[in-house]
Amino acid sequence: MARGEGTPEQRAAVLKERIYITFTSLAVVMALGSHADELTAGAAAVTLLIAVVGTLLAVFVADLVAFIAIHTTVPDRAELGHMASVSIRALGVVGLPMIFVGLAGLGVWEVARALRASTIALIISLVAIGYVAVRRVRLPLGQRLIVLFAEFGLGVAVVALELLAHAG
Length: 168
What we know:
The protein is an all-alpha fold. It has one domain. The protein is about 80% helix and about 0% strand. The chain has helices at about 10-35, 40-70, 75-90, 95-105, 110-135, 140-165. Helix 1 (about 10-35) runs antiparallel to helix 5 (about 110-135), helix 4 packs antiparallel against helix 5 and helix 5 (about 110-135) runs antiparallel to helix 6 (about 140-165). The radius of gyration is 17 Å and the shape is globular.
């Protein structure tokens, strides 16, 4: 299924999963950043990848269970393929953070800088996902902006909560 195709529910599933992965990645990157001086780039990359894959598997299982509960049957091949595709494509959310951590692994950046850049990229990703979500919706411009600022604000709130948690 190409971008923009599929049912509204299928398009919503893609956006939902990307939001889950982005918030998970943001929390992990922030937690790693609180002790970046003790980390190698490899350890940061592996930790982020494990957290993201674990979250993707959890969401996949939740979607599968929800499908069975709603439809009282297992998904057919096409629906199962869509669920798997959504999960695999959501990995793209960590593309930039992995590139940044890779730069740290090559010695171009310090790990702390790579994690800060990852935090910024993930917050921008949240806003971009919000934009994709509202661009086709028939909402007044003010309500669309509220959605975008809410996602940005929630991303900043994750950063603030992580900083608060590690300040003590």
